[in-house]
Amino acid sequence: MEWSLLFNSFIGMLAILNPIGNVPIFLEHVENEPPNVQRAVAILMALSIFILMAIFFIFGNRILTAFGITIPAFRLAGSIIILIVGLRMLQGKGKFESHGIETAASSSGTFDQARNRLSHILVPVAMPLFIGPGSITTVILYAEKTTSITMGIVMLAMLFLCSVIVGVVLVSSRYIFNKIGTNGTQIVIRFMGMILCAIAMQFMIDGVAQLLPGVLDSSFTHAGH
C-alpha cells in the first residue's frame, strides 16, 4: 500500500476543496434558511461532492483516452490550472466569484427545502466552487497513480473522508465563521494556497520528466512511483 501517495492525495484534495475558505460563500447562499435546512443542505452538498469526485476518479482516464490526451500532457496542463488556483488563494481570493441567489420561501419539510435549495446552488457552489477544474484535475491525476484495485478502493474511501470533512465544516459553518472571522478565513486560504502551489510544481516536474526522460534527476519526481 502506497501510504505516502494516499497521505499526499488526502492533503492535496483537502487543500483544493478548501472547505473553511468556502464557508463564507456557502453561508451567503443559505443565510435565509433556518438552521435545520442549512445543515441538511450541507449534508446533501457533501454527498454531491463525493459523487462528482468518484465519477471523475473512475472515468477520468477514459475521458482523456477518448479525446486522445496523454497523461503527461494532462499533468502539465493540470499543474498550470492548480498553480493558478493556488496563486489566487495566496492572494486571498476565492477560486471563483460568488453571486447571491435569492431564496424562495417554503413551508415544506426540512429535506424538501434542503433539496430545493441544493438544486439552486449546486451550480455554482458544488460546481465549480468545490469541484472545479483544479479539483477535477487533481482527482484524475491521483487516479492515474493508483496501481491496484485495493488502492483504488482506499483512494475512494479517502475521497469520501474528504467529503465528510467538507460536510462537517459546512454543517458547522456558522460557528466556524463566528469563531475565526474574515481574518482567520484568509489565513487558512493563503496556507492552503501555498500547499496547492507546491503540489502544482510537483505535477509539473513529473510531467516534464515523463515527456523528456533523463532531463530531471529522479529525486525531483514522483512519476512512476
TrEMBL record:
The chain crosses the membrane at residues 6-27, 39-59, 65-87, 121-143, 149-175, 187-205. Pfam families: MarC. Keywords: Cell membrane, Membrane, Transmembrane, Transmembrane helix. Coiled coil: none annotated. It comes from the Bacteria. GO terms for cellular component: plasma membrane. Signal peptide: none annotated. It is found in: Cell membrane. It is a multi-pass membrane protein. Belongs to the UPF0056 (MarC) family. This is UPF0056 membrane protein. The lineage of its organism: Bacteria, Pseudomonadati, Elusimicrobiota, Elusimicrobia, Elusimicrobiales.
